[in-house]
Amino acid sequence: MVRRTRAEMMDETRRKLLASARAAFAEKGFAETSMDDLTAAVGLTRGALYHNFGDKKGLFAAVVDQIDAEMAGRARSLAEAKDTAWHALLAEGSAYIEMALDTEVQRIVLRDGPAVLGDPARWPSQNRCLDATREAVAQLLVEGLLRPVDVEAASRLLNGAALNAALWVAACDDPVAMLPKAQEAFRMLAEGLLASSASSVMAPASR
């Protein structure tokens, strides 16, 4: 029998705790989930949780980071399938907003996340989304499709618009009905950055 290294065992413990926490936080929410719930479900002790994540809030932050990274990856994959940088930018923002309909995303990231971890714009995971937006804005400027604009300012405003639209959709009484309204508003805000000579890129992207 092959003996596992200490690093391998620690990695397995972290993965077990993350999986247990993700399921519990999605089902019960942060406040109603106890540390005993999280550890007992995978045959571990509170000591393992403390050692790996510090406390329940630290574990929750790790779960949020994991899900948020998956959201950014899914949105980026959809964007990469588009034929232009402009359509990719719109697709990425629209996809991120649409993920507010996912019950796990809705409960953990968009509802409990801000209440437990504070301003989402300051979460480390949001930097990944912001980096992708910066790349897109910089490319569009090089292509002459945008008005003269500061890359950082435009990127932060676009990224913030998508994030806040997702937060709004998740919090409203009828997320399904609000989704297309939020996506349309995001598109219109983004189009405000277009140069007057770039109207042709506003045509629907090829599917």
Automatic annotation (TrEMBL):
Pfam families: TetR_C_41, TetR_N. This is TetR/AcrR family transcriptional regulator. Residues 11-71 form the HTH tetR-type domain. PANTHER family: HTH-TYPE TRANSCRIPTIONAL REGULATOR RUTR, HTH-TYPE TRANSCRIPTIONAL REGULATOR UIDR. The lineage of its organism: Bacteria, Pseudomonadati, Pseudomonadota, Alphaproteobacteria, Rhodobacterales. Residues 34-53 bind DNA. Coiled coil: none annotated. Keywords: DNA-binding. One of its GO terms (molecular function) is DNA-binding transcription factor activity.
